[in-house]
Design goal:
Structural class: alpha/beta
Number of strands: 10
CATH architecture of the largest domain: Alpha-Beta Complex
Helix content: 25-40%
Largest sheet: 10 strands, mixed
Distance between the termini: 20 Å
Number of helices: 10
Strand content: 15-25%
CATH class of the largest domain: Alpha Beta
Order of helices and strands: EHEHEHEEHEEEEHHEHHHH
Length: 285
């Protein structure tokens, strides 16, 4: 296998129905030099049987014991990873077959960039392509202050030494991804590829209680920067309050699915064709 090793971290907690697809998408990668760490965060169903069916020596199961939350699970994976680069696949999502290859090529060609993310395919309630979310193709300079981040965490590939320098907060059960990316993006340049390379099951995760809890937890993360960025943090906290109010109103009106529609555009014919080809490849594993 040529090229640097990529460590793919898959946090798992009672996702037995969706884990097979996530793992199939890793096995389907055109880039072959990877290891995949499945981090079982105290699930009721041990995923060993699912993993064993793939007969893939590059899959490695790591047990957390009791349920400690996503921050602990992701850090456990980071501590166990041996790759030059760190990538993510959440256990209810999947990745396009060329994702690792394209991101490794980008990071190898752009040594000044700490991480590269990508666009996302938004998966509907029956597995169809509901739309795409793209973030442009550019390199961002380090952020000047905390803000809503211009790139998503899930599709990101990160240089391992920078990921370890930032680390996941093991005490955060949610928004550990925002905290992690914020620490990196305040210090380092980062980038995004425009094309969708990550299939995100957002419709299945819409829940007002969870969304409100995430906004509150994000506000607590931002508070850590108040002494260094007092005006910027106050402005961001105000935005978070308005966003939480908007979420509540949309759910009260039964219009919560508009949250996804507003942030997503219809896929082009070429984007749909690539999605269908990627899905067929992953489903065939």
């Amino acid at each position: 296998m040529s090229g640097p090793l990529v460590s793919v971290i898959v946090p798992y907690y009672n996702n037995e129905k969706t884990l097979p697809l996530a793992l199939a998408s890793v096995k389907a990668q055109t880039y072959e030099n990877w290891e995949c760490l499945i981090i079982d965060d105290g699930s009721e169903q041990n995923p060993a049987n699912i993993i064993d069916k793939f007969k893939e020596r590059r899959f490695r199961l790591i047990l957390c014991g009791e349920n400690r939350g996503r921050g602990y699970a992701r850090q456990k994976g980071l501590d166990s990873a041996i790759g030059k680069y760190i990538a993510m696949v959440d256990a209810d999502d999947w990745i396009y077959p060329d994702k690792l290859a394209k991101q490794v090529d980008y990071l190898e060609s752009n040594p000044e960039v700490a991480l590269v993310s990508s666009g996302m395919a938004i998966i509907g309630e029956t597995g169809e392509l509901a739309g795409v979310r793209k973030f442009g193709e550019k390199i961002f300079e380090p952020l000047k202050a905390p803000m809503y981040l211009p790139i998503p965490h899930a599709p990101s590939m990160i240089r391992a030494e920078i990921a370890r320098e930032a680390g996941y907060d093991a005490h955060l059960r949610i928004v550990e991804d925002y905290d992690f990316l914020l620490k990196i993006s305040l210090k380092h340049s980062f980038a995004t590829l425009s094309e969708p390379l990550y299939a995100y099951t957002e419709f299945a995760t819409l829940d007002l209680k969870k969304m409100m809890a995430s906004q509150m937890a994000m506000a607590e993360v931002v508070q850590k920067y108040r002494s260094q960025y007092p005006k910027e943090v106050q402005k961001l906290l105000s935005k978070m309050s308005l966003k939480a109010f908007g979420y509540t109103a949309l759910f009260a009106l039964g219009a919560y699915k508009h949250l996804i529609v507003w942030r997503t555009r219809r896929a082009s014919n070429s984007e749909l064709a690539k999605f269908l080809a990627a899905r067929n490849t992953v489903y065939s594993i």
